[in-house]
Each structure stands twice: as structure tokens, then as C-alpha cells.
Amino acid sequence: MIVTIDGPAGAGKTTVSRILARRLGYRYVDTGALYRGIAFAATNAGIDPADDKGLEKMLAGMKIGFTVREGSTRLMLNEKDITDRIRTPRIAMAASAVSARPVVRKFLLDIQRELGKEKKAVFEGRDMGTVVFPQADVKFYLDASVQMRAARRFREFEGESGQSMEAVENDIRRRDENDSNRSLAPLRKADDAIAIDSTDMTIDRVVEAMYRHVSKLSGGD
What DSSP element (H or E) covers 212? Predict the structure, then answer.
């Protein structure tokens, strides 16, 4: 089956998706990493996220995708591993900006759907269940309070970004605003998605709840 997990920044999608995929024996696909990869490339090239012509020219010669090395999924950009260079607040905000551009979304739509052809995958992102895989077998929408999401991001980047907790929370709110109000593929819960609020839940409880839903539909325990 194809399982999608959408939701806002800091809701715990990455951690939960990885564990759920491993437990199901599925592939894990972090589509947000693809947008971060494009944001990383645009930032390094000095291309403004709103410069559609500049983005289109850059994408025309771009090769981006995933590879597995020593059991770890790595993001490759033009044959270079950039996995460890895209997890910064700056790239996160740039990814939110480029994800609103039609030229970027069109470019990645085909890549994401190609990745889904083999099925047996957990896709994590913002519009997996609404746009990319509207016919997905199981859809989840994972959310949490702004305060909890900010606290998680603060712990994730503590000592690296130099941001205060207040600054991280402001970034989260700004990303929510950008992602939810863009005209193209805004962040929202699919009508048939199962909503899970992880504010007061452990990772294990979230994964267990998702696993039970998927198992029921797949004829498992």
C-alpha cells in the first residue's frame, strides 16, 4: 500500500514515518527533503525563491533523488550527498518559500509519483494525501500545538542554529502561515485522512496508532 503522512513543521512526521516504515517493511520517502534540496541549491546559486525563471533554469539541469548507503537513505543533488547540509532553519524557511512556486511543484510531482509506483512506501510531506497521492490507501495528518512543535525544533537544532526558543516558535508560526495560505497545494488535512494530535503522545504511541490503522486495512493483526 501507499501510506501518506502530512502535517506542519515540527509535528514529528520524520521520526514517526521512519519508524512506521521500518515496522511495516516499507520504504520511507521524505518528500520535504526534496524541497529542502532545491532550496539548498537555489540558496547556493543566489536565486531568489520567487524568481520562477531562475528556478526553472536551475531545475532544467538538476538531478535530485534518494539513494541508500549502508542502510541509510541519502539525498543526492547532482551526484553529491547533501543530506547533512539541508537541516538548518535557513534552508527550512527557503524550502517553505520555493515549495509555493508552481515550477518547483511541477518538477517534483513527477519525481514523487515515480517513487510511488512500486507501492509499499510511507510518504511524508505537506500535500502527499491531498495532491501527490489523492488515492493513497491510508492517509494520516499529524499535528501538535505550536508550543510543542517549537520545543521539538529547538531541541533538534540546539547549539547549532543559535536561535532562541522564541525565535524558533516565530519561525514555526511563519512557516504555518506560508504553508497554509499559499495558493498552490496549501497545507491542509485531506478529507479522508486520519488526524492524530501528538502534543501529549509519545512517539511510540503515535506509531502504534498508525500501525494499527494500516494493519486493519492490509488484513494484518
Answer: helix 203-218
Query: C-alpha distances in angstroms, 73 versus 28, 30, 32, 131, 170?
Result: 8, 9, 14, 24, 30
Residue 184: band (very low, low, confident or very high) from pLDDT cuts 50, 70, 90: confident
Question: Environment class of residue 183 by beta-carbon count within 10 Å: exposed (0-12), middle (13-18) or buried (19+)?
Answer: exposed
- Residue 85 to residue 37: CA distance in whole angstroms: 9
The rounded percent of the chain whose pLDDT value lies above 90 is 76
Residue 4 pairs in a beta bridge with 123, 139
Percent helix, strand, coil in the chain, to 5, is 50, 15, 30
pLDDT digits (tens, 9 = 90+) for 142-167: 999 999 999 988 887 765 667 889 99
pLDDT at 182 over 90: no
Confidence of residue 220 (pLDDT cuts 50, 70, 90): low
Percent share of the chain, pLDDT over 70? 97
**What DSSP string describes 127-144?**
SIIIII-TT-SEEEEEE-
Instruction: Quickly tell me which residue has 539548498 as its cell.
Output: 40
Give the C-alpha separation, 33 to 215, whole Å.
27
Q: Which domains does the chain have, with CATH numbers?
A: 2-213 (3.40.50.300)
Q: Phi and psi at residue 103, in whole multiples of 5°?
A: -65, -35
